[in-house]
Specification:
The protein is of the alpha+beta class and 341 residues long. The protein is built from eight helices and 20 strands. Strands 1, 3, 4, 5, 9, 10, 13, 16, 17, 18 and 20 form an eleven-stranded mixed β-sheet that branches. The structure holds adenosine-5'-diphosphate (ADP) and magnesium ion.
């Protein structure tokens, strides 16, 4: 069902639109679509809104391929054959896995598509933290070298028994990228799509103004933000330690794991937002930059031609040079720092 409405607050996991800052411009929105364990919302400001109706089928197809928890997904077929034989996969999945391997390489392994043996040890809802021995045992199975792709044969292969793909750190950004592609093909010139941790923007608002995107307060609720970003025509993804986390014995355990140690990354950051033109990359690099920390994370993001916002544990909001002038800090507890080239 589609309906006309004025742009309103769009609450999100990591990113949110600031209700108070949106110009009152009319958008056509669709009912939210639940897929990939999250909710996608869409707003078309200029162009044929019939395209909104293509999104559920696109997301269903992506979920059928990449859902780690569905026995029938392509990803599960590759995981089930770990240590056995290569599995024929769709051209699309092969392409996404190749991109994932490239991101793993360019982040020095801070992003890893083969962390399933580790990620499956955690249950953030039940507050289940793995035993150190289980983490040690899983680490070798997570090594990036376990994944072998054969483009000519059209296969993916996990060479070790027990190894497993988890594309959770890039698939939502990829889905947003694919939705934007559909919008562009349909001639849409102003739109916004969000799944909370990733947002895609087509063009500017019809008035020519940028979209205003909130950077979430890591200590606040889903509607609280500490800064706003004025952006157009791009994708952005956020990884933060306030998502899927719990505290036990005074320690905060969260869902962004350092592939080098197997434990939640402790890099002095609370959150990272990466801004770029490619949703799988912004998503993978937001996770990787969180793991790498401010200095190495910023270097990796810049080397990949993207920009980032880092929210540090000590109350700074640090941006790469390309975001200078696009960010406004709205919370006096935080100070802005523009990183040097
Ligand atoms: P969100 O899921 O909130 O958008 P991320 O994009 O950072 O956050 O993805 C985190 C998810 O990716 C985790 O829940 C886990 O499944 C997986 N993951 C955790 N650490 C890593 C990592 N270092 N590299 C790749 N995937 C990871
Ligand atoms: Mg990510």
């Amino acid at each position: 069902m589609r309906r006309k409405r004025a742009a309103a607050a769009l609450l999100a996991a990591g990113l949110l639109l600031c209700a108070s800052c949106q110009a009152r411009e009319e958008a056509v929105s669709a009912a939210p679509v639940y897929s990939l364990a999250t909710v996608f919302t869409q707003e078309i400001y200029a162009g044929d809104a019939a395209v909104l109706e293509q999104t559920p089928a696109l997301l269903a197809a992506l979920d059928a391929k990449y859902n780690r928890f569905s026995q029938t997904s392509e990803l599960s077929a590759v995981n089930a054959a770990a240590g056995g034989a290569p599995v024929t996969v769709s051209e699309e999945m092969l392409g996404l896995l190749a991109r994932a391997q490239e991101y793993a390489e360019s982040t020095g392994g801070a992003f890893s598509p083969t962390l399933a043996p580790l990620t499956s040890l955690w249950d953030f809802e039940e507050k289940i933290c793995p035993a150190p021995a289980a983490v040690e045992a899983a680490l070798p199975q997570c090594d990036g070298s376990v994944l072998a792709l054969d483009a000519a044969a059209g296969t993916a292969f996990l060479s070790q028994a027990g190894a497993g793909l988890d594309l959770g750190a890039l698939v939502k950004g990829y889905a947003v990228e694919r939705i934007l592609e559909q919008y562009r093909v349909a001639g849409v010139t102003s739109a916004l799509v969000s799944c909370g941790s990733s947002i895609g923007l087509v063009g500017t608002k019809p008035s020519g103004a940028d979209f205003l995107i909130g950077v979430r307060d890591p200590d606040g609720g889903a509607g609280d933000f500490i800064a706003t970003l004025a952006l157009s025509d791009c994708l952005l993804s956020t990884s933060g330690d306030y998502e899927r986390q719990f505290e036990a014995d005074g320690v905060r355990y969260h869902h962004i794991l350092d592939p080098a140690t197997g434990w939640p990354a402790r890099s002095g950051l609370r959150a990272v937002t990466v801004v770029g033109q490619d949703g799988a990359a912004t998503d993978a690099f937001s996770t990787a930059a969180y793991v790498l920390g401010l200095t190495d994370g910023a270097a990796a993001v810049r080397a990949a031609g993207m920009e980032a916002v880092f929210v540090t544990e000590d109350g700074s909001i640090c941006v790469t040079p390309g975001l200078e002038g696009k960010i406004t800090v709205t919370d006096a507890r935080y100070t802005l720092r523009v990183l040097s080239e």
